[in-house]
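Structure tokens please, single chain.
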Amino acid sequence: MVGSLLYFLQEKMLFFPTVLEQDYVFKFSKPFEELFLKTDDKAVINAIHFKTENPKGVILYFHGNAGDLSRWGFIAEYFVEKQYDVLIMDYRTYGKSTGKLSEDVLYNDAQYCYDYLKERYKENEITLYGRSLGSGIAAYLASKNKPSQLILETPYYSITDVSQSRFPMFPVEKLLKYKLPSFQYIQQVKCPITMFHGTDDVVVPYKSAKKLFEVSPKDLVTFITIEGGNHGNLIDFEAYFITINKILP
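Here you go.
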């Protein structure tokens, strides 16, 4: 019974979107442009493009599995304050974004946003940033493109690995429709990689991130352990602050 529920309800267990009315008006403290990017299959990806004067580069930010841009936009403003432009999208079914959700479209929509930025910036000015769920998407993009760097906050080895830690009694490899195998993608990345993970993370186990680090290109990856950090508060720690200031000066 539990195994059947895991299979049929896995999207509800993995994704926690909130929906916004199409006429919802975003209010952020930094200048931004709201985008409605139409995909080939007639879905619409809602995104916020923060812009600053004389940007040092642009960050393509992939957020976690809960909420929408009305929340995540405020988190992205942290990087705008460091004088970086930021593009952050809502996944399908989140916020104002529309269309059917699947693992393939997560990757395709991410590439669509990356291509949008390549038309407006040099590729070596693009930083990929993935947080939690978004870390697997960012790792995939980095493996297929040539960004300047990849930053992963609370990353995982794979969604299968995280699910196995929660449901050790079930064959989750066979049950899951969403795999997000970051460990496969990370091995193909050619740019510098920085990972942040807290030792007290109960959402994505610290050991899952360490497994990802162990299969990453050793000459490119830096792993920052945040002692006492949990899934949502790494920005409050000095180790995060010091490292971000080094890689996003």
